[in-house]
Amino acid sequence: MAGAGAFRVMLRMQIKPGAEDEFERVWTEIGDSVTSHPANLGQWLSRSEEKGVYYIVSDWVDEARFREFETSRRHLDHRQKLHPFRTGGTMTTMQVVAFLPSSATAVTHAEWEAAR
User: Does the keyword NADP apply (predicted)?
Assistant: First the structure.
């Protein structure tokens, strides 16, 4: 996970009704075209409670390297593969100013309850 100083991009995508499962499948299959870029720090796909709305968050080492990727052939190919599923979307960019790591350990709920 990216820490302070990372450049974060958040996309809100509206997906055509009935195309959600196929969108998720394709997004997962082609995701390495983003995550294999040396400046990418990771990417997340989240489904909103709002029907057909997804959020994609990706972290980058800095804005300049993201903008380099954004205008690359690699990015254009990636966008073309996802475009048939979209009915709209927006992009928000931001600078991460602080990161507070969790002190929790990865345990199941049952393990947590047993330890209480």
Answer: no
User: 105 lies in a domain?
Assistant: no
Instruction: Tell me which residue range forms the domain holding 78.
Output: 7-100
pLDDT tens for each residue of 45-73: 999 999 999 999 999 999 999 999 999 99
23: closest CA among 59, 1, 58, 47?
47
Residue 30 and residue 103: Cα distance in Å, rounded?
A: 33
Write down the mean pLDDT value for the chain.
91
CATH of residue 59's domain is 3.30.70.100
Q: For residue 114, give both structure tokens.
A: 């047993």
Residue 116 Cα distances to 13, 102, 104, 106, 111, angstroms: 41, 19, 14, 15, 9
What pTM did the predictor assign?
A: 0.82
